[in-house]
């Protein structure tokens, strides 16, 4: 029988980092599986569209909060499944113009972009 030996420095340098974060990787994988898949994201000139799978949750069991460019989605108390996620978008959202639709376990958020307001004022040179 042949046993290959490797230098101690080689085995400790390569193996430890590969397994050092395995717990977080498994935790992240399980969290993704239990909370749903990653959202599908699209945008045009005026809106962002997020599509998320939230099976088993009714529309009255979901809470959607919009604060500036952050969208928080969570299931309410008493929902059959737990769901909680937050997404930061590249531009602020106008909550009054945005809409949400839940159909067959698929949540579609059509988020309207806020029009930037120019608050610059000119100074006269004397």
Automatic annotation (TrEMBL):
<feature type="domain" description="CS">
    <location>
        <begin position="34"/>
        <end position="124"/>
    </location>
</feature>
<dbReference type="InterPro" id="IPR002068">
    <property type="entry name" value="A-crystallin/Hsp20_dom"/>
</dbReference>
<dbReference type="Pfam" id="PF00011">
    <property type="entry name" value="HSP20"/>
</dbReference>
<feature type="domain" description="SHSP">
    <location>
        <begin position="28"/>
        <end position="126"/>
    </location>
</feature>
<protein>
    <submittedName>
        <fullName>Uncharacterized protein</fullName>
    </submittedName>
</protein>
<dbReference type="InterPro" id="IPR007052">
    <property type="entry name" value="CS_dom"/>
</dbReference>
<comment type="similarity">
    <text>Belongs to the small heat shock protein (HSP20) family.</text>
</comment>
<dbReference type="InterPro" id="IPR008978">
    <property type="entry name" value="HSP20-like_chaperone"/>
</dbReference>
């Amino acid at each position: 029988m042949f046993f290959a030996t490797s230098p101690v420095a080689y085995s400790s340098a390569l193996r430890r980092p590969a397994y050092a974060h395995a717990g977080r990787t498994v935790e992240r994988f399980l969290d993704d599986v239990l909370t749903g898949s990653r959202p599908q994201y699209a945008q045009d000139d005026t809106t962002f569209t997020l599509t998320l799978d939230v099976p088993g949750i009714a529309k009255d069991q979901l809470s959607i909060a919009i604060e500036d460019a952050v969208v928080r989605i969570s299931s309410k108390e008493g929902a059959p499944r737990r769901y909680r996620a937050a997404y930061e978008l590249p531009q602020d959202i106008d909550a009054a113009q945005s809409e949400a639709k839940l159909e067959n376990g698929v949540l579609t958020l059509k988020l309207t972009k806020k029009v930037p307001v120019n608050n610059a004022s000119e100074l006269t040179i004397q």
